[in-house]
């Protein structure tokens, strides 16, 4: 079998940017719910701080796409990172719950700018035979940073609930510096985009494709469980359900990220060589099982086991859905890509609110149970989808 073509250097540059973003967020994530609770609010209000970030990402996604078209990916990326850095530093100085909520919401706008510009660049730079590896490499930056961040996040939270906000701002400044230097001579906006399998343009056309629906469903479930409940509910579960210190939150999130890092690159290779569908099915099924373990009576062994299994499933889901969208999206269809990105934000916004509301009323088993149900629905969509990998691509030749 011929060797797969090398990835463009911009993919590795983006991975470096993602690393610094993830390190800071991994440090900050354990502190957000507990910091909000310091202002005397309930669990649902604490989760709203996480959801506000996701909500503003959601409503600003299309606007971020327009900025990319007008100003270029590099400018939008650097500006977005700067916005998140500035609002995070100010959030660490918050004296009341409302200020914290507003600043985290504004940070979501900057996050959308970064995410949309990076996603547009990846799709334009790589072909079908590279899509899984490119997605895995980019996500690898996030996940390696996700390993490093939580290791320091728990201890820093024990020192001060404000300190992680300032460390996050510093890490984002490094990310912006990497983007400015590594991408300074790259004409990002002119990168070619080949014609994809899906005929016609617009979200309506895309949603008639069961493969695209499966990718969107998986991304919604990822947002709900991985970007929402994992950061808004897990820290409270550790301190209130397991009655352990915040350092154990960092351990659990570190285990999750470790499984991601271990399986991410193999998942990218398998996605390019064997197809998107089996990886998508495996990822959603494993994640469902891992979340179901959290429905059991609270115990440290079950919690760590759930982080291992869900982390493995998340690694597969980091690669396969993005590869599917790249396979089926029509050329230069920003709206199709935006809806896929927004699905994750819808999950991250609604998941913590509903899960924590159920926790307040019925306990942690109910909150984790509904999250497992959402992931199970994504598994059903994955089973129903056709394979989208281009059989004629060089990577498919054996």
Biggest sheet overview: none
CATH architecture: Up-down Bundle
Number of domains: 1
What's the level 1 CATH class? Mainly Alpha
N- and C-termini, Cα separation:
5 Å
Order of helices and strands: HHHHHHHHHHHHHHHH
CATH homologous superfamily caption: MFS general substrate transporter like domains
State the helicity in percent bands: over 70%
Quick check: average pLDDT? Answer: 82
What percentage of amino acids are in beta strands?
Answer: under 5%
Q: Which structural class matches the secondary elements? A: mainly alpha
Shape: globular
Radius of gyration: 20 Å
Task: Summarize the SSE layout with pairings.
Layout: H1 9-28, H2 31-37, H3 43-59, H4 61-71, H5 73-91, H6 97-125, H7 131-159, H8 163-182, H9 203-207, H10 210-232, H11 234-241, H12 246-274, H13 276-293, H14 300-328, H15 334-362, H16 364-384
Short description:
The chain is mainly α and 398 residues long. The protein is built from 16 helices and no strands.
Keywords:
398 residues, Growth Hormone, Chain: A, mainly alpha, single chain, 0% strand
Describe this protein's structure.
The structure is a single chain. The chain is an all-alpha fold. It has helices at residues 9-28, 31-37, 43-59, 61-71, 73-91, 97-125, 131-159, 163-182, 203-207, 210-232, 234-241, 246-274, 276-293, 300-328, 334-362, 364-384. The radius of gyration is 20 Å and the shape is globular. The longest helix has 29 residues, at 97-125. The protein has a single domain, classed as MFS general substrate transporter like domains (Growth Hormone, Chain: A), CATH 1.20.1250. 79% of the residues lie in helices and 0% in strands.
């Amino acid at each position: 079998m011929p060797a797969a073509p090398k990835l463009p250097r911009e993919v590795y540059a983006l991975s470096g940017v993602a690393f610094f973003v993830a390190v800071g967020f991994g440090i900050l994530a354990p502190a957000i719910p507990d910091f909000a609770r310091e202002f005397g609010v309930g669990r649902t209000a604490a989760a709203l701080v996480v959801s506000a970030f996701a909500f503003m990402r959601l409503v600003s996604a299309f606007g971020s796409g327009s900025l990319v078209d007008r100003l270029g990916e590099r400018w939008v990326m650097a500006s977005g990172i700067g916005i998140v850095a500035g609002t995070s530093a100010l959030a660490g100085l918050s004296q009341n719950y409302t200020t914290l909520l507003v600043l985290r919401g504004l940070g979501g706008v900057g996050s959308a700018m970064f995410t949309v510009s990076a996603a547009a660049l990846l799709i334009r730079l790589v072909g079908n035979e590279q899509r899984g590896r490119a997605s895995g490499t980019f996500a690898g930056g996030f996940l390696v940073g996700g390993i490093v961040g939580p290791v320091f996040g728990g201890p820093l939270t024990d020192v001060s609930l404000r300190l992680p906000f300032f460390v996050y701002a510093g890490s984002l400044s490094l990310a912006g510096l990497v983007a400015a230097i590594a991408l300074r001579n790259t004409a990002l906006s002119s990168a070619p985009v080949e014609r994809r399998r899906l005929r016609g343009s617009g979200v309506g056309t895309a949603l008639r494709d069961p493969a695209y629906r499966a990718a969107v469903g998986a991304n919604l479930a990822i947002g709900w469980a991985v970007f929402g409940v994992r950061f808004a509910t897990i820290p409270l579960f550790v301190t209130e359900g397991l009655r352990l210190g915040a350092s154990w939150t960092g351990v659990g999130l570190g285990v999750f990220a470790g499984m991601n890092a271990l399986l991410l690159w193999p998942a990218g290779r398998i996605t390019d060589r064997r197809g998107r569908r089996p990886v998508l099915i495996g990822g959603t099924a494993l994640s469902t099982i891992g979340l179901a373990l959290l429905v059991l009576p609270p115990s440290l062994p079950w919690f760590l086991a759930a982080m291992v299994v869900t982390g493995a499933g998340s690694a597969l889901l980091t690669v396969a859905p993005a590869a599917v969208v790249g396979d089926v999206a029509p050329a230069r269809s920003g709206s199709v890509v935006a809806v896929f990105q927004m699905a994750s934000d819808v999950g991250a916004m609604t998941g913590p609110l509903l899960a924590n509301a159920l926790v307040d009323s019925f306990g942690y088993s109910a909150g984790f149970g509904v999250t497992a149900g959402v992931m199970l629905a994504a598994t059903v969509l994955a089973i129903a989808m056709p394979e989208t990998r281009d059989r004629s691509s060089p990577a498919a030749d054996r």
